[in-house]
Amino acid sequence: xxAPKRGVSRLTALSMLLVAVxxxxxxxxxxxxxxxxxxxxxxxxxxxxxAPCRIEIPMLNALSLELVAQGVAVVGVNFDEDPRALTLxxxxxxxxxxxxxxxxxxxxxxxxPPDVLxxxxxxxxxGEAVAKLIGMQTDAEIREQLLMKGALLDEAKD
Length: 158
Fold this sequence. Notes:
Layout: H1 2-23, E1 40-46, H2 51-67, E2 72-78, H3 84-93, E3 100-101, H4 103-109, E4 119-123, E5 129-134, H5 139-148
Parallel strand pairs: 1-2, 2-3
Antiparallel strand pairs: 1-4, 4-5
Helix pairs in contact: 1-3
């Protein structure tokens, strides 16, 4: 009878250790300190159960690396509003490389949770939501919206 209890205790201890380790593997940013404050932001709502979200994540990872040089930050929001440690664990599992905001940080952005996933908002440097992109997006679609809103320079004209 004690063996199963020890097993559960070890499992719980290992889970807690994993959460602690995973919690430090992703950058911890606040909405005020996150890359993109006073800059353009691409704010993507995702969930672990959302198949299109999972498809978008590698594209958003690459896009975040490319756009940072142009003053645009990509940040993520866990739609499920899980506790921070669990959100970071899920983000690690999904291989999300861009910052994931806490629920409190998202509340400060003033965004209403979307009705459909994935949903991506484009925020201007003053924090105004200038576009709401519903459904799975491509790199080209997000870039086109950023270009139309004046966040990116038109490289074709250069």
